[in-house]
Amino acid sequence: MNSDTLLSVRNLNVSFPSAKGDVQAVQNVSFAIGKEKIGIVGESGSGKSVTGRAILRLLPPYAKVDAEEISFKGENLLTYNDKQMRQIRGKQISMVMQDPKYSLNPVRTVGEQIMEAYSIHRRVSRRQAKEQTLNMLAAVRIRNPEQVYKLYPTEVSGGMGQRIMIAMMLIPEPSLLIADEPTSALDVTVQLQVLAILDDLVSQRGMGLLFVSHDLELVSSFCDRIIIMYGGRIMEIVEAAELHNSTHPYTRGLLNCLPKIEGKRERLPVLKRDESWLKADFSHTLSGRE
Amino acid sequence: MAKRVTHISTGREWLLTDTPQSAFQAAAGRAYLGILDFLKNRLAVLGLLIILALVFIALFAPQLAPFDPVTTRLGDRLQPPSLDHFFGTDEVGRDIFSRIIWGSRLTLYIIGLVAIIAAPVGIIIGTASGYFGGFIDTVLMRVTDIFLAFPKLILALAFVAALGPGIENAIIAISITSWPPYARIARAETITIRNSDFIRAIRLQGAGPLRIITGHIMPLCMSSLIVRVTLDMAGVIMTAAGLGFLGLGAQPPSPEWGAMTSSGRAYIIDHWWLITMPGTAIFVVSLAFNLLGDGLREVLDPKSDN
Amino acid sequence: MLKVENLNVIFGHGSARNHAVEDVSFTVNRGESFGIVGESGSGKSTVLNCIAGLLHNWRGTLEIAGTMIGHKRDMAFFRMVQMVFQDPYGSLHPRHTIDRTLKEPVAIHQLGDANKRVEKVLAEVGLGDRFRFRYPHQLSGGQRQRVAIARALILEPEVILLDEPTSALDVSIQAEVLNLLQDIRLERKLTYVLVSHDLAVVSHMCDHIMVMNHGRTVEEITRNQLQGGELCNQYTRQLLVASKGYDRAAIDQFQDY
After folding, report:
1. In this complex, which of C92, C108, C133 lies closest to B25 when CB atoms are compared?
2. Residues of chain C neighbouring B200 (CB-CB closer than 8 A)
3. φ/ψ of residue C87, rounded to 5
4. B133-174: per-residue pLDDT in tens?
């Protein structure tokens, strides 16, 4: 593995018990991420979100998770107890969810919440904390931080809320950010602006970003590498620039079935699912970057 | 033997199939899943069994009761519990066991009628209020507020006092005081349902308010209402017993449990069974309804649909 | 087929006053597919709701098939215009089987032959008889949306209003539903009004496209103009750039309109 590997996952399996037997949500997933932007792309039920959560142990207790290896900066996370995992989640790996409204306390102002998060991580005076909070808000390109500081979460727009969440997640200066569909609920222009902020932060601070999304085109233009998942398995891992040259039938199917502005007015090709995708062994493509 | 097993499993398959062939099969499959869910809750099943036992006892009261519930036998008065009189006898020599058995009919009569009167009134007023909104909502909800502004028992007392004592009047009084919470629940549910896409879709297909309320909104209010009514039954039994206790409900010599505790009051120190036996009956049946209600809540909760 | 003139919708009063739709006018010809594109808060869905009669506080002129329509709609209107909603999970009654959902409109309009109609329309949207007695929670998102389309079709309308019909679906399912909508339109010679935030979807489905922002019409363009990038308006141009994916340099040029 590369020396600057931040997180490495080998043979991750997650299953959920149900009345009709265990449901295998993630199967034999292996990948490694360095200081780069990696996208995990798949349709609903592909296991992309579950993968992100399993790494941070954020799944409900009835989920069965096992893996040969989940290591972060060389430390084996599998041996960590819950308290140590909380440390990791707080300081080393942060997570941004889809809807900021559920992640913020509705009865306290945005500023207070960021300030509190800040003072938990650093011993500073109230004034310094507030100053830093305003700096954080400015860093995620909020034009009037003083005003936004006093707003309640219900009073901010979706794009603003997501910027605030990102500001909060960046306070502990994590080395890895897991973003689970962070912009899917936003308008397309706002979405791109939020991504630009993430992009800049990643390159300035040398962070790694694991970007979970359903939008293949967006991820291919935003990330460095793409993990494509289907039915809980990795179909392939490709360089973003090479995506359009991919030969995997699933990737091709996904790309083809998108309507295009320049496209002709004809029937869209429909994705033909193939059971054999779930059996094929793609492990040869998984050994890091070729 | 093997044949029988396959028969059972096909029955189960018929119920659980993903491709039902008729509306009946779909509904049956749904009910079967609900029953499976319900059976997982042991306490709720216990509650249901107690209530089924109550119904059974009420149906077969003449066969089950060893003595006549109203004939007095002064020679046998105030006998402690024994093999002759399981629960003892009261101050005029009536067998308390027999009276409790006959009293189950009265209890069922009261809760049955209250449920039949109060629940429909509540759901009609609540759904109409929630669906139409505006002026209709204001008027109906203020009326509801007026009823809710008085303690239930006091209001029931006032009504019975006005109507005259008696079990029918007690039932009417309890029903009048029970519907407002149901109307509130139905209204709250209706308001959340009213703006959903499936209601907008049926409006766009030309359905009138009557069809929308009865066919589309009411079925969705039913589950929370059934739960609430079941949980309220304990309160209804208590109110009926309270009215009976105050002499405003069932009149002597009818074996109503509340009235029995009332007349046993004078003997509480030396002859504890006079008041303990009917009191225990009230307690057990109330508890059973509460347990059943809790179990139903878990099964019928619309949020657990998916 | 459909003519909207000077449509205005205002929600709320005083400081909460929101002019959701301002002087919007457009015409849709018979058999045409008309697209309305905009971001959230642009008023695009509000326009659709006004046409459908689900909103009442509008002012302006609405005309369908040559007849003016007011705030109250009659049965003939409902047989002429139907709608498909965005959220496949919220648009079907959770306690009704698919069969019941589809028979309800037949009963309302007393059309008779309910069983035959249901069978026919289910086949038309690519769902067999197997699905007929299922409850919505036993269907996937795409299947639910097919049921919603079947429900709109069963009254044999001439105009179908589509409110973001595929935005809640996976892309592979979106392709299937868009194909289905295209096929049905050609077969039944329907008129569509499609509302979406996705330029690509609208461009795939529609010949004439209206771009909306903050309740106003930004511009009305044809599909060819969009493909050729012949756009007069900066806002439309920005939307077009944004829909092409992430481009760090272009984002710095974005403005708020």
Report:
1. C133
2. 54, 83, 85
3. -90, 105
4. 999 999 999 999 999 998 888 888 899 989 988 889 999 999
- Is residue B5's pLDDT more than 50? no
Return the ∠ at Cα C112 (arms to C110 and C115), rounded to 5°.
130
Mean pLDDT value of segment C178-185: 94
* DSSP H stretches of helix in A6-125: 48-55, 82-87, 100-103, 110-121
Is the Cβ pair A43, C252 closer than 8 Å?
Answer: no
> Span C206-235, mean pLDDT?
90
Q: In chain B, what percentage of residues exceed pLDDT 90?
A: 44
Q: Which residue has the higher pLDDT, B101 or B166?
A: B101
**C-alpha dihedral sign at B207, B211, B215, B216:** positive
Q: CA of C134, closest CA in chain B: separation in Å?
A: 7
Of C198, C226, C238, nearest to A189 by CB-CB distance is: C238
Model confidence pLDDT, tens digit, residues C98-147: 999 999 999 999 988 899 999 999 999 999 888 899 989 889 999 999 99
Burial tier of B258 (Cβ tally within 10 Å: 0-12, 13-18, 19+)? buried
10-residue mean pLDDT profile of chain A (290 residues): values are 77 85 88 92 90 90 90 89 87 82 83 85 84 85 85 83 84 88 83 87 88 91 93 91 89 89 80 77 44
Among C residues 102-121, those touching chain A with beta carbons less than 8 Å apart = none
C91 touches chain B (CB under 8 A): yes
C121: nearest Cα among C93, C150, C85:
C150
What is the spatial distance between Cα C185 and Cα C158, in angstroms, rounded to a whole number?
A: 10
CB contact under 8 A, C175 and A188: no
CB of B66 less than 8 A from some CB of C? no
How far is it, in rounded angstroms, from Cα B15 to Cα B30?
8
3-state secondary structure B199-215: HHHHHHCCCCHHHHHHH
**From C87, C108, C137, residue closest to B305, measured CB to CB:** C137
CB A288 within 8 A of CB A2: yes
Lay out the sheet containing A93-96: strands in order across.
A93-96, A176-180, A208-213, A37-41, A225-230, A233-239
CB contact under 8 A, B19 and C99: no
Whole-angstrom distance, CA of residue A135 vs CA of residue A111: 11
Separation between Cα atoms, residue C31 and residue A42, nearest integer Å: 36
The closest of C151, C159, C231 to C199, measured between CA atoms, is C231
Instruction: Give the number of C-alpha atoms closer than 13 A to the C-alpha of residue B278, restricted to the C-beta side.
Output: 32
How many CB contacts within 8 angstroms connect chain A with chain C? 97
Phi/psi zone of residue A145: left (φ > 0), alpha (ψ -120 to 50 degrees), beta?
A: alpha
Asked if residue A169 lies in contact with residue A155, where contact means CB atoms within 8 angstroms, the answer is no
pTM reported for the whole predicted model: 0.86
Which of A189, A192, A270 is nearest residue C176 as measured by Cβ atoms? A270
Kindly state the tokens that stand for A234.
């990795």
C203 touches chain A (CB under 8 A): yes
Q: What's the CA gap between C230 and C144, in Å, rounded? A: 38
Q: Nearest-CA residue of chain C relative to A267?
A: C179
pLDDT one-digit tens code per residue, B238-291: 888 888 888 888 887 888 888 888 888 888 888 889 889 999 999 999 999 999
Cβ atoms of C7 and C47 closer than 8 Å: yes
Of C94, C151, C155, the CB nearest to B302: C94
CB B210 within 8 A of CB B225: no
Longest alpha-carbon distance in chain C: 61
Query: Given CB atoms, is B25 within the 8 Å cutoff of chain C?
Result: yes
pLDDT of A3: 53
Say what the ipTM of the complex is. Answer: 0.90
